[in-house]
Amino acid sequence: MRKLTYFIACSIDGFIGDPSGDATAMLAFVDEEYLAFLKGEYPETLPTHGRRALGLGDLENKRFDTIIQGRASYDLALKEGVTSPYAHMREYVASRTLTESPDPNVEIIGDRLVDKVRELKAEDGDLGIYLCGGSQIAGELLDEIDELVIKTYPIVYGTGMPMFGSDFAVTEFTLGEVRTFGNGAVVRTYSRKR
Ligand SMILES: NC(=O)c1ccc[n+]([C@@H]2O[C@H](COP(=O)([O-])OP(=O)(O)OC[C@H]3O[C@@H](n4cnc5c(N)ncnc54)[C@H](OP(=O)(O)O)[C@@H]3O)[C@@H](O)[C@H]2O)c1
User: Fold this and answer.
1) Is 59 helix (H, G, I), strand (E, B) or coil?
2) Cα(68) to centroid of ligand 1, in Å?
3) Would you call the peptide bond into 158 cis, given omega within 30 degrees of 0 as the criterion?
4) Which of 16, 26, 113, 163 to mutate to test the pocket of ligand 1 (most atoms within 8 A of CB)?
5) Number of other residues whose CB lies within 10 A of the CB of residue 183
6) What fold characterizes domain 4-192?
7) Which residues line ligand 1 (CB under 6 A)?
8) The pairing of beta strand 161-162 with beta strand 64-70
């Protein structure tokens, strides 16, 4: 059984972006120390085009070999002309409006989202599934999430896009690793309480 991990950046007050979802203010925290952490421990979460821009070249996947995004999150790459933003993994995009995939590496999940995620989790393999977001798809998949990796940056948004676009319900997680960084970022790992 493979894990579904929601690996997400947020403000201190738990928003993953401004009210429109824009998360660019958080990029300011990707400094040398933090980038070394991402590169060393979560290299696959760096988009393929971002790696090239940083001159990082090929990096081996360490935690994930599959990524799931909602269509609104995938649109950010499409708008830049990038059809396969995570070409080093199998890419799935949830969408009921994208009928045809813009890229051979990207598979559209049109319906049966939860069933498809359960199929992927049931596959054999050492590496897990990276749930990239955004809010809506994370809310719909909350019951399937096995692990949270929450990258909290030292900023308050006041309001914004919530981590989970879901109805109120209490779901318990157990705190695992906590990493702190010189720039004030904190990365906490939680596993679902069974
Ligand atoms: N801070 C971070 O680390 C981080 C990470 C990722 C994203 N984000 C931000 O999140 C924002 C986008 O989040 P969002 O909540 O607006 O949208 P989203 O979750 O990325 O995508 C929503 C879309 O996914 C599709 N979808 C949702 N549920 C589905 C289902 N059950 N079956 C099939 N398709 C389904 C629909 O696409 P269709 O409309 O095509 O049907 C829906 O409009 C972006 O602005 C991005 O910046 C932040």
Assistant:
1) coil
2) 10
3) no
4) 16
5) 14
6) Dihydrofolate Reductase, subunit A (3.40.430)
7) 8-9, 16-17, 21-23, 70-73, 76, 94-98, 109, 111, 113, 132-137, 140, 161, 165
8) unpaired
Q: Cα–Cα distance between 123 and 133 in angstroms, integer? A: 21
Going by C-alpha positions, the residue among 143, 119, 120, 140 that lies closest to residue 130 is: 120
Bridge partners (DSSP) listed for residue 107:
92
**Token pair 């969408």 in the structure block, residue:** 95
What is the residue with the minimal CA distance to atom 28 of ligand 1? Answer: 137
pLDDT in tens, the chain (194 residues): 999 999 999 999 999 999 999 999 999 999 999 999 999 999 999 999 988 888 887 889 999 999 999 999 999 999 999 999 999 999 999 999 999 999 999 999 999 999 999 999 999 999 999 999 999 999 999 999 999 999 999 999 999 999 999 999 999 999 999 999 999 999 999 999 98
**Can you tell me the distance from the alpha carbon of 128 to that of 3, in angstroms, rounded to the nearest whole number?**
5
The ranges assigned to domains in the chain are 4-192
Q: Map residue 21 onto helix, strand or coil.
A: coil
Q: Give the position of tokens 């933090």.
A: 34
d(CA 109, CA 141): 13
| pTM of model > 0.85 | yes
The set of residues, in sequence order, having a beta carbon less than 8 Å from that of 21 and lying 6+ positions away, is 72, 134, 135, 161
